[in-house]
Recover the amino acids of this structure.
């Protein structure tokens, strides 16, 4: 449960909306997840976290599915059900198959 609630797009400051827009554009999505909405109370943290994740997920030696699977593994280790669900969904969106998930 979020202590301060979530910052929805229509409630966000212009600075936060710009970051939300970049998240949606980069991820080719029409929404931002609750993770971003929760940390939007501190726009500097929102921006810093988003910029860091954009760098991690940028094309490189590891493909996007592998990177998401690393996120899933860390999420399982941390026992974060929300994180497991969102990173699994993201990995599936990037091409993760049931066979790969089970192996």
């Amino acid at each position: 449960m979020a202590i301060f609630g979530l910052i929805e797009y229509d409630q966000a400051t212009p600075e936060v909306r710009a970051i939300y827009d970049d998240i949606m554009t980069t991820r080719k999505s029409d929404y931002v997840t609750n993770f971003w909405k929760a940390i939007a109370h501190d726009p500097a943290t929102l921006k810093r976290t988003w910029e860091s994740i954009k760098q991690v997920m940028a094309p490189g030696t590891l493909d996007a599915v592998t990177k998401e699977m690393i996120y899933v593994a860390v999420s399982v280790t941390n026992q974060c059900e929300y994180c497991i669900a969102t990173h699994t969904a993201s990995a599936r969106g990037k091409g993760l198959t049931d066979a790969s998930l089970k192996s």
Observations:
- The chain has a mean pLDDT of 93.
- Residues 72 and 84 are 5 Å apart (CA to CA).
